[in-house]
Amino acid sequence: MCSSATTPVKAPNDKLNIVGFADPTGAFTYYRQGFPRVPKDALFNVSISRNESTEFTGAPRIVFWVGGGTGQPRMLSIMQCHGDLPQLVVESWGAQMLIGRT
Asked: Is residue 7 within 8 Å of residue 56, measured between CB atoms?
């Protein structure tokens, strides 16, 4: 389980959607339902644009996604938080994306 430490997140070039869930079922259901606007059982649900950032606490399962070129959502990652994440950075280079700790 994640600690209550605050995790800052920086957006890539596209608008980045970040949704946190308490368990993997919620995260995978959200993905299978096509990323509904108001996710059921989400601990948090934020969207940030380029050069914006946000912070969150907790949320052991985090879904990252962006809108695709045809208007369809494009899944980037579902990650499970193990222990503290003192700083989480999301960067993109063209079609590539990196999620990591600094």
From this structure: yes
- Listed in sequence order, the residues at least 6 apart from 37 whose beta carbon sits closer than 8 Å to its beta carbon are none
What's the one-letter identity of residue 12? P
pTM: 0.66
The pLDDT of residue 16 is above 50:
yes
**Residues 6, 43 contacting (CB under 8 angstroms):** no
Question: Domain spans of the chain?
Answer: 7-101
Burial of 59 (0-12, 13-18, 19+ CB in 10 A): buried
User: In the block, which residue shows the tokens 């950075």?
Assistant: 89
Phi (first) and psi of residue 38, to 5 degrees: -115, 90
